[in-house]
UniProtKB/TrEMBL annotation:
InterPro entries, alphabetized: Methyltransf_12 (IPR013217), SAM-dependent_MTases_sf (IPR029063)
GO biological process terms, semicolon-separated: methylation
Taxonomic source organism: Actinokineospora globicatena
Keyword line: Methyltransferase, Transferase
CDD domains per the UniProt record, alphabetical: AdoMet_MTases
Record-level Gene Ontology MF annotations: methyltransferase activity
Name of the featured protein: Methyltransferase
Domain Methyltransferase type: 67-159
Length: 278
């Protein structure tokens, strides 16, 4: 991705990003990369992202959970299939239309910006708040996000987060080897991009190319959660991500994850974080 020279007002980010996700949701649902047909054919099928963390998730049966920024709901439905009573929240109406078509009555979906989640979901009503790969980069403030997470969790409830590592987001995806290009720490102005592709295999063409994104350092994320009274119980860094984040630099492994082709131990590409509200 290439940032534009003149970034517009960050307050415009919701409309710009929503248009992008609304347009891409049908293509994502139709792409084999999301495996929607596998979900329909096999009632035990789980998304690759959830399956990656299955041992870390522990027992979910009977837990009330909410998946923030759930997109088309494949991870949300996977958590429901593991026994949780799941809700999903996303700001994209078209993403939620695809999610409801996939999950049916198994998941309760809500349309909202994540910062307004407490207006549409029950404060303090959840045992589990889940956020998956590629979500936090769409939010300008990690402290506001952490406040929402804390507000949704009941005492003893936990946040489960698997995310792209901020080190990976800081790398130049156009380079032939790992090179730092973008901010690692949270920044006031968004990175503004204009690109008309997507991260799944599809023949669809798109007219909405704009996106506004931010990075958040790992320390900033942890500190924001601690400030809201959550207790960190697990933080695992991984050398892989579930998509080809650095084309020409990564190779897909047998587990469906992508790692640096040369010396993958050089890069923390994603992480899993678990925190509990005492």
């Amino acid at each position: 991705m290439r940032p534009m020279d003149n970034a517009p007002d960050p307050l415009a980010y919701i409309a710009v990003n929503k248009a992008r996700w609304d347009e891409r949701a049908p293509a994502h649902a139709a792409s084999a990369d999301y495996g929607v047909e596998r979900f329909r054919a096999d009632p035990t099928h789980l998304s690759d992202v959830v399956r990656f963390d299955r041992s870390r998730l522990g027992a979910l049966t009977g837990l009330r959970g909410v998946h923030l920024q759930c997109h088309i709901g494949t991870d949300t439905l996977s958590l429901a299939r593991l026994g949780a009573r799941m809700s999903g929240l996303d700001f994209s109406a078209e993403s939620l239309r695809q999610a409801r078509a996939l999950a049916g009555d198994a998941v309760d979906f809500h349309e909202s910006d994540v910062y307004a989640a407490l207006d549409v979901l029950e404060p303090g009503g959840y045992d589990l708040v889940y956020t998956g790969i590629g979500a936090l980069c769409w939010l300008p403030s990690i402290t506001r996000w952490a406040a929402v997470v804390a507000g949704l969790l009941r005492p003893g409830g936990r946040l489960f987060l698997r995310e792209t590592h901020p080190l990976l987001w800081a790398l130049d995806e156009k380079a032939t080897e790992p090179v730092l290009r973008y901010p690692y720490f949270e920044h006031a102005e968004p990175l503004v991009f204009e690109e008309y592709d997507t991260y799944v295999a599809t023949d669809a063409t798109f007219t909405h190319g704009g996106s506004h994104t931010w990075n958040h350092g790992l320390g900033e994320i942890v500190t924001a959660l601690l400030a809201e009274g959550l207790r960190l119980v697990r933080l695992d860094e991984h050398d892989s991500v579930p998509w080809n984040a650095l084309p020409g630099q990564m190779t897909e492994s047998a587990d469906g994850e992508w790692r640096l082709t040369e010396a993958p131990e050089r890069l923390a590409a994603s992480y899993t974080l678990v925190a509990v509200r005492d």
